[in-house]
Amino acid sequence: MQSLKQHFQVPYSYEVFFTERLFAPENRVFADFVQNFGNPSFRKKILFVLDKGITDIQTELTAEIVNYFQHHSPADLAPEILVLPGGEVCKNDPRFYEEVIRALDEHGIDRHSFVACIGGGAFLDMAGYAAAISHRGVKFIRIPTTVLSQNDSGVGVKNSVNYLGKKNFLGTFAPPVAVFNDYSFLESLGERDWRSGIAEAVKVSLIKDISFFTWLESTADAMNQRDKSVMIEQIYRCASLHMQHIASGDPFELGSARPLDFGHWAAHKLEYLSDFKIRHGEAVAIGIALDSVYSHLIGHLTKEDVDRIIHLLKKLGFAIFHPALAENDKINLTNGLNEFREHLGGQLTITLLEQVGKGVEVHEMDFDLIKKSVDYLEQIA
Amino acid sequence: MQSLKQHFQVPYSYEVFFTERLFAPENRVFADFVQNFGNPSFRKKILFVLDKGITDIQTELTAEIVNYFQHHSPADLAPEILVLPGGEVCKNDPRFYEEVIRALDEHGIDRHSFVACIGGGAFLDMAGYAAAISHRGVKFIRIPTTVLSQNDSGVGVKNSVNYLGKKNFLGTFAPPVAVFNDYSFLESLGERDWRSGIAEAVKVSLIKDISFFTWLESTADAMNQRDKSVMIEQIYRCASLHMQHIASGDPFELGSARPLDFGHWAAHKLEYLSDFKIRHGEAVAIGIALDSVYSHLIGHLTKEDVDRIIHLLKKLGFAIFHPALAENDKINLTNGLNEFREHLGGQLTITLLEQVGKGVEVHEMDFDLIKKSVDYLEQIA
């Protein structure tokens, strides 16, 4: 008897809208999307889930959403607007995602209805996970509120929570149905959060697009002065490169395709070693500096290019060294590589730089050269 | 500023192998698959999760698997072979899927490693869910051990567990990497389980393939006498139609495409009303009878065709009526339709029959005609 062979493709589409004051009554972008999604004649339901870090600052946000839906009514707004704590803590305790599931069940959110989530990257990860596993996936709308989530994680296809102390252990690949990047959420960001997300733009420019890197060099001063149009263009270009990478490769990482993880092996370890006091973007900046120096030491990158990269990171206000990198370095950095290897599923693949704008993959790293890179960063920090 | 539009397709492939005595040392089907999957030079890990309902009967199964891997060694067998209770109970309590997650974490099963699950449909649902949410999906191999899971659910793309008393509330769409339909597991099935799964074959033949229906009529006696080749061919043809339906439509039901749910609205309710004492296939047989009579009453199906369908169901040993159908019928059946509407996301879509071999969708059902159909079935039962 022959075997039966199954093959099919699942198509995914979503749009990332750039806007300001998303729920101002005169802004129709959100209402038009919800109204026209799927079958326009079919009445939809929508549940909002909000990051408390946002509602603490924008105390009128809940009222604005209610008012917006009274004005436009593109869908039946659930009578409850759920507000939960954001940040990494919301991924650690199952009670938070269970609370999202409780609310979407209680308000009859089915596979043709929406959960709209407003918050930072960790919060979107958590609520996105709840939406993805309920009814095998309800429609999820992301409204990211940080630079990092607007230019990187919020436009991607992943969600996750931590489990038994293991970061991102539970999760799925589940694209959103739409993303709304609202600049006005960024205005209230503190200095560190404003800067932190730019590290992902530096990263993607280094492995993908030299013209974007040059543009980042030329706009660094304006960025530091919180120039709005520069920040928006940075997010747009970074998000675009990130999305192209997803679409052109293996979006759900079913094979051995690598995510955009230049600078990330050391960053992951550093976040952990600092007990998450270092923000992700800050750790990535150090990881970029480290892997750039290493790329030079193995002959892939010129000294001039390393200087150029470190100059840009410093100009943007990033530290390029952290004391934790040099403490117990043999154990910590070797463990960092091993954990990254496990994370990848057994075979180590590290993206380094061949030149500015072009990444290259290697499958091993030499500890002595890593150590030499760390020492160099400590000297010039 | 323009929006960014994302579009990509995710390809899925898997093969359903038909075999016997899968872990007999001379049977290379399983070893060859594992060895050649993905990168053949890459050493993989595999964790087995077994339905206690099977190991209670096949007491040597664990030893056979260990012996098989000593013989062939296509992957590193996890030192633990996990045995958990099967049946609907395993989907009710989160401790069971958490136990699968615990084991796959403990044994280092990553996204390039396998969880192989041996069991009935509910057990595969539960373990498949655990595999799908761990590391955003580890490779899952299904080895279904019942007629129903070999010809229907086991070759499909879904997993699920129950949550807070709601059936299949949590789950994902996650195709397996392979399915092994081993006939020898069917030999120990009792009368009711042998028969029960055949209802899905009758169902799919009625809405898709008249020649398969005719074949089922011609082989019913042999099937009742537990003819092996007839059972294998039935499973092959039913699985094939089911897989074609998935691949030709909207595999992950992202739009409003309907699953193969002829006869299922009443079946779901009946299972619940009988406190799951009626097996799924037995309930589906009654649901098929009900919706066939109803299809006739609204003028879609001739009386001769209804007789022919009911004759086949009876010949196969199915009851076509259950007293629970007639109790509180107004409330129960109306609720049944409403629950099915909710399950579909607001718009009711019921598949009925236009003729034998051809389904037709309707968006409402008339209670008086349902009642008339129930009365008719009670009379001729």
Automatic annotation (TrEMBL), chains A, B:
Gene3D superfamilies this protein is in? 3.40.50.1970, Dehydroquinate synthase-like - alpha domain (1.20.1090.10)
**InterPro entries named among the record's database cross-references:** Dehydroquinate_synthase, DHQS/DOIS_N, DHQS_C
Its cofactor is: NAD(+)
3-dehydroquinate synthase N-terminal domain segment(s): 82-195
Q: What is its EC number?
A: 4.2.3.4
What is a biological process (GO) this protein takes part in? aromatic amino acid family biosynthetic process
The enzyme's first-digit EC class, named in words, is lyase
Q: Name one GO molecular function term.
A: 3-dehydroquinate synthase activity
Q: Which UniProt keywords apply?
A: Amino-acid biosynthesis, Aromatic amino acid biosynthesis, Lyase, NAD
3-dehydroquinate synthase C-terminal domain: from which residue to which, for each copy? Answer: 197-323
Protein name, entry field: 3-dehydroquinate synthase
Instruction: State the organism of origin.
Output: Aquirufa antheringensis
